Amino acid sequence: MITVSEADKTIEIFGGESAAGGTPTVLLITGGESARGVWEKYSALSDRPCRLAAVEAEDWENGLSPWPAPKVFRGGSDFGAGADDTVKYLEKEIVPALEGSPDGDIYIAGYSLAGLFALYALYRTDVFRGAISASGSLWFPGFAEFAAGHEPVRKPDKIYLSLGDREKNTKNTVMSRVEEKTREIYGLFRASGTDCALCFEPGGHFSDPEGRLARGIAWLTDNRI
Fold this sequence. Notes:
The protein is of the alpha/beta class. It contains 7 helices and 8 strands. The chain has a single domain, classed as Rossmann fold (3-Layer(aba) Sandwich), CATH 3.40.50.1820. It has an 8-stranded mixed sheet, sandwiched between helices. It is 33% helix and 22% strand. The chain has helices at 35-45, 60-63, 83-98, 113-121, 143-149, 178-191, 209-222; strands spanning 2-6, 9-15, 25-30, 51-56, 106-111, 130-134, 158-164, 195-201. Helix 1 (35-45) crosses helix 7. The chain starts with a strand and ends with a helix. Strand 1 and strand 2 form a beta hairpin.
C-alpha cells in the first residue's frame, strides 16, 4: 500500500499497473469499511491486475447526498445537498492525483450512501467509466425518478449493483423500498445497453461490506460474480 496526500485528503492506494498497461483503477469512497480489507478479499478472489484507491468520506448525510431529504434514523441527521461539491472535488483534486491508468479507465465504488453517490457521480461528471454500488442507498427519495429522467454524462461501460437479500425487510418504510428501487435502476442501465450486473448477497445491510465491494471489483475486472 502507498498513500498520497492531496489537499486535506489521504488516498490509500493498493495494487498497481500491469506490465501490459490498461489496468482499471477503482476509486473507493470509504466509510466504516476497511479499504485494506476490501483489497485483501479482492486479491483472494481474482489475480487480475487492478488498482484500488480509497478516500474516506466525511459528513455522509451532506457530502454524499444529492439533494435535501428528511432523516431516516431516529437521532440521525437530515440529508443535505453536498454531493455536487464532492463530485467536483473528486474530479478536480483526487482523480488528477491518481495520475490515471493508461487508458483512463477509472471507476467509482461505494457502500451504502457512498454506493448511491457512486451512481449519482455518473450524472455529474465524465471522468468515471462506471460504478460499483454495493448495498447502495437507492431507496433515497427521488433518486430512481432522477435516474429515469436523466442520462449519465458519459454512457457507463460497466455498472455493478449488489444488495443483501434481507435488506428490504427493515421496518423503516423508506428504506424497505431498497430492493424495488435497486431493480428499477438496474433495469434502466440494462435498457440503455450498459454491461450491468445485479447480485443478491445473503444477509442484511451490514453483512460483509468489504466482501460485497470486493466481489463487485472482481466482476468489474473479469465479469465474474
